Amino acid sequence: MKRTRTRLLVEGALMIAVAYVLSYIKLFALPQGGSVTLEMLPLILMGLRNGPKWGVFTGFTHGVIQMVLGFSNVMYCPTLLTQIGCILMDYLLAYSVLGLAGLIAAPFGQRRALGAAVGTVVCGCLQFLCSFLSGWLVWASYYDMSSRELFFYSLGYNASYMVPNIVLSAAVVLILCRAIPDALQPQR
Question: Are 103 and 112 in contact (CB under 8 A)?
């Protein structure tokens, strides 16, 4: 089936809707934000199927929607600098990087399942980096800790939910590659 702009926009909108619903199905949630969900999976699938341009666009749009609907989280940030950092790192960049999965998977060629899994893990790690940096920035304004303590606090807190998200999403991508391999092939 030929890719048309309308089809890509509809597919992106569907992936955003599924990601939004999945963000509410939590295996567990942490008290200061962050939870284990499959929210990142549809955004990664968009990048795997349609490339980085449409994947990043879909992730960015989802991030904007999440930011608008969860803007009260930004208000926890005490300064303008931390609010900007939170907006960029927790919403805009964190979801946008998930759309790069197809770019990372492309060099794997015929080993599509491996490429999809690697793309999922790398993009999940990029999202983790965004959450880690945001946590370091925001918590520095609240806690009287050394940089080293803040580093490990943000690392540990964000890893406690991001690592399970990455592992879970990579496992589901591998299952999908086996169950419906054509669905994860790059669309033309």
Answer: no
